[in-house]
Amino acid sequence: MRRFCLFALGLLLIVLIASPSAATVATIATTAPLEDHQEQSVDAAFRAALKAAVEGATAMGLPWVRISRAVVLEDAVAVQILATDETPESDTGEDSPDPDNGPGAAAPEPDKHHDSHRSSETTSRA
After folding, report:
1. Which of 77, 80, 78 is CA-nearest to residue 26?
2. How far apart are CA 96 and CA 103, in angstroms?
3. Is residue 41 part of a domain?
4. pTM above 0.85?
5. Residue 12: inside a domain, yes or no?
6. Which of 90, 75, 78 is nearest to 116 (CA)?
7. 46 exposed, middle or buried (CB, 10 Å; 0-12, 13-18, 19+)?
């Protein structure tokens, strides 16, 4: 019986040590109204949408955020962030694969009515 208990304890320790960590990850998208397409208005709307997204991530207990997309629409600015509770690995300048931006993903067609406003290379702590 003692051997079985030691075996079970050893197996349990191996399983606990070898198991991957379970990080919580969420994609959060927000919009802010846009009065006109002047740079100041776009910047203010971008900041408002980003602030709302980061506040949502913080409320969910996800302190690390990365801007995925920011798009200027006809009457609003849309921002999408990726939020996690795990400290991001060192930024190598390469995007990690995701369903929309991974290897083999088709490049999006440019749209006459939508302009990208910000780069998607920002990682910060909320």
Report:
1. 80
2. 10
3. yes
4. no
5. no
6. 78
7. buried
